[in-house]
Amino acid sequence: MYVRSLIVALLALVCWNSSPQSSFAQKKGAAKPQPVKLPPSILSPKTGEVIKVAPVDRSTRASVESAADQIDQILQKTWTEKEVKARPALKDEQYLRRVYLEIGGRIPTLEEASAFILSKSKDKRAELLDKLLESPDYVSHFYNYWADILRLCERPQAQLVMDPYMSYVKEKIAENKPYDKWVHEMLTATGKVWENPAVGFQLRDDGMPLPYVDNTVRVFLGKQIGCAQCHDHPFDSWTQKQFYELAAFTAGTRTKATPADLGLQKTANPVGELLKEARAKVPDGKLKTPIQTVLVANRYDVNFANRELKLPHDYAYSDSKPNAVVKPKVLWGDIPSSAKSADRREQFAAWVTSREDRQFARNIANRMWKKMMGRGIVEPIDDFRPENPPSNPELLEHLTDEVLRLNFDLRELIRVIATTKAYQRLAVVHDETTTEPYYFEAPVLHRMTSEQLWDSLLTLIAYNQWAYQRPSAKAIADAIELDLGKAKLADAERVTEKFAASFNLPAYNKELQKLCGFKGQLLVRASEIPSPVPLSHFLRQFGQSDRESIEGSRTSATVPQILTMFNGSLTHILLEKGSVIYDNVMKAPRAKAIDVIFVSILSHLPSATDRELAQNELRTSASPEAGYGNLIWALLNTREFIFIQ
Fold this sequence. Notes:
This protein is mostly helical. Helix content is 48%, strand content 3%. The protein folds into 3 domains: 4-51 and 449-478 and 512-644, no CATH class; 58-91 and 117-139 and 356-444, no CATH class; 151-352, no CATH class.
């Protein structure tokens, strides 16, 4: 249905756009076949372990099915009350594609799709789900999800080296660290980012202590309190004084080492002195090496001590006075008893992640439900307040109970949601702007994210999608660590030389291009590409965030997206000799080539009408090979490919 009309419309456009250099366009009998140009690093499947991922416990499958059934019962009760008609169940091919995209972040390969379609196992859906949840694909996809929320990028400030923090987020997903422990760790971490990468969360808002509190509450508790930084909240109950009382818990966070921390005199400025010496050696005094990055990065060292916080000098409300010291106080509930004697930052972290209060668990339950179903029970998901009630309060509280029962095992929660009958139904077209509540008769139809689209196209190109992975904290430490308390200029220059050749961004990007670059594109998973990418990059064109705002990505359509899919570099790279789909089509018997193309791109065989249209295109093309390229391009530009049905 989605393919038929679009093949007819698109084939003419695609034929017009066909690249004369496309390997598929080479006529049979050519004297000199085109050599493979793709980078060698992607042409052979990766050997050995890609990422060490915690295994899924198959012994809990019965309890997962029971938990999923409870969710379905709550939904069925709502559907009956609201006279909502359940959507049709997904066919195996549709389930296959959805779960690969929503759990693994990409479409399945030809081999993966064929194996699932041909399998006779009655448990094949559960088996596939478990396999994906313990795969590097799951880690990569959910890293992209959290990168958008946590605003992950290598250099949020010029001298703030955040690569270890980005690697840390991947590692926590891979080891399936309980969510409450993971968040508590980030809120209380101390040290340099390559010594303790969890400090990256606090460093992301370096120099902005009030926005840090606002962002923390928004991400982990689902409440927007930011307006109260400057005045009483106009749409909620929070006052400016309450905001400052909460901010008093983290006011003692210090992000840079003091001279005393470095064992130096109080007035010492080791970074300034070393930079002064370095400039004196340069004729024009202008440093062209990243020595400043190395020196300043080594000063970043998160620490904490209880400190007073004062109201602003222009505080204008009658409940206190300008410049008055505020006492720490949470917005609701109490500090858990286990943390009452701890320092203020520990108290704040204990309050945020409290099991007793339930808002932390409720917020992540709502987030994970939206991640899987396309819409939150509370929308927007960071706007929990009495005036914005949940569309299904019973479901939200039940999911909150599940989060607590599972001890914040988010992967197991995803496993439960993906096992529900509701999740395994045909998607619904839902208007996000409507004020009518949505009752989750199925997931919401939505376009792939930019990362899902990139990684799906990469699946059709690269045998090895993991030719490059983010550097570890140790690798960064080996290249940048410097003892500022003892360092001489020669030490700083030696470390700078090492850093400049490895992880300073110009050299870093240059080496990546050598390893896995082709026609200006890095042919690796989206999770491994340095961010933010340029505005002209495929990922930004399809809505990847600049990582400046929380959840700043988008999936709205634009004209450049259409042009990119029709005639962009990635769709041309996909048809190069040596790509996965090129090899699969060219080695298939001619009678099976159409099937190979459809299963590779759409994860199902063509209908009789689709097959007839495709065969007609092959007959009328300059050569069968050119016809293959046109058919591939046509299918890539269908709604069925770009949307998750």
